[in-house]
Amino acid sequence: MITPKKIFFHVFFAVFVFGMTCLLALSAGVEFISPFHFLEPSFTPIGKLRLSRILLGVISGGSLALSGCVFQVLLKNPLADPFILGISASAALGATIAFALHLPYNAIILFSLLSALIALGIIIFVAQKKGPTASNFILLTGVLLGFLFSAIVTLFLTFATPYESASLIFWLMGSLSHPVPLSISWISLGIVFGISLFLFLKSYELNLLNLGLDEAHALGADLLKTQRRFYLLASFLTALSVALTGMIGFIGLILPHVIRKFWGTDHRLTLPLHLFWGATFLIFTDACMRTLSPYEMPLGVITALVGAPIFLWILWKGHPYQ
Predict the structure, then answer these.
(1) Fewest beta carbons within 10 Å, which of 61, 71, 119, 306?
(2) Superfamily, domain 4-28+45-317
(3) CB-CB contact of 188 with 194 (8 Å)
């Protein structure tokens, strides 16, 4: 049975590990910097770069884990992830257009986010027209949008210069090294925490949806309004993550399975855990990569290499979905 005391204990532990991981990420790298130096006025450029990566790690890791959890409940599909509805491919198309126009990086973020929101509008329109039981239709629509947008991006790569192709491919593979201004990172972080708080306050609605549509309707849930709200919030989190860090895979697929296996399916407990464990996983992976390799490697590749064996282990052991 989930009690407030149990929720506090597990969330406090997750926050503690998250804080320790952030301190490790600030210090670790090719050059070790003591965490106490970050309190001094002479905050080094290296420290500012690491702080930027940590902020992006919190935004992207937490957003992808949360949206993955929500999508798996909405679509009743344990293989659903944040990229399944074509939101990421749409964001990639927006970034491709900005790259083609040789716009500055702030414009790339804006184009990517706007493009993802257009795809989100299409998904919401389909969800509203087809009703609360059309999860398969919504899923197929998202997959088709993903194929369409990915084809356009591939077409651009075919005709782009080698420099443009290399820049876009690196962006698409995902990284926390993107030159995102700190002001945008802090604003985005506030948005992510605000959405996370709202999801936590509405966690009982996710619990109802997890029981099944008939059961949720019998218990008084407004299915269409509830689903539309969760589609909107989860898709926006995905769009924000892709716009800032590119496409970092496996987090939104694996973390929900790991958390369900160890903490169950009550979203009053698991939603905060998705936020902090998702951020912790991505920040720790990035810190290890920076420490072990002198080269900047695509983070999406590393998360896939780490995540695939974990996912296979979970499948082998079995997992509680319902």
Answers:
(1) 306
(2) ABC transporter involved in vitamin B12 uptake, BtuC (1.10.3470.10)
(3) no
Whole-number Cα distances in Å, 100 to 202, 227, 233, 313: 41, 36, 29, 42
| pTM confidence score | 0.88
pLDDT at 11 over 70: yes
**In angstroms, rounded to a whole number, what is the distance separating the alpha carbons of residues 277 and 243?**
21
291: which 2 tokens?
A: 């420490």
**E strand residue ranges, 81-208:** none
The two structure tokens encoding residue 53? 């990566």
What is residue 198's three-state secondary structure? Answer: helix
- Reported as half-sphere exposure (CB side, CA atoms, 13 A), residue 123 has a value of 35
Closest CA to 109 of 296, 298, 242: 242
Residue type present at position 284: F
Alpha helix positions (H), 212-266: 213-218, 223-245, 251-263
